[in-house]
Amino acid sequence: MKNLLMVITIAAFFSLNAIGQTDKNVPANIKTAFAQKFPKATKVVWSKENDKEWEAEFKMDNKEYSANFDENGLWKETEYEISLTDIPEVVNSTLFKEFAGCKISESAISETTDGKVYEFEIKKDGKKVEVSIDINGKVLKQEQGKEGDEDDKD
User: Which residue in 13, 72, 134, 151 has a CA-CA distance of 20 to 30 Å to 127?
Assistant: First the structure.
């Protein structure tokens, strides 16, 4: 039992230490660009999205956000969850016409320099499907998950 407790303590220490160091590793130009774009952000947690991109997860205006910046500090994308009541009618109409009988698991907005896109994770016929719809109601992307790939219970 003592060994188990020690292993858990050591694992927790290294996990917290790794999280804390990630913020220190974020280049100053990226932190500055983030602060200028999101001056009201709180509870910012940084991570590497890939070799050339950083992601900040944060809270702002009582919503959870994520924003990506390239290694030069250039903003790439912001995503935040929205409620079903925030979905415009044209987008809602397309969603339920093209994916009749679906259940929405998650809904979010993705903003880039190209504009705004509504992103959904839906469940249809026991399968997870990721869907992107533009502001005019055009389906831009549809990716199907694996059979029975569900995070929550119906």
Answer: 134
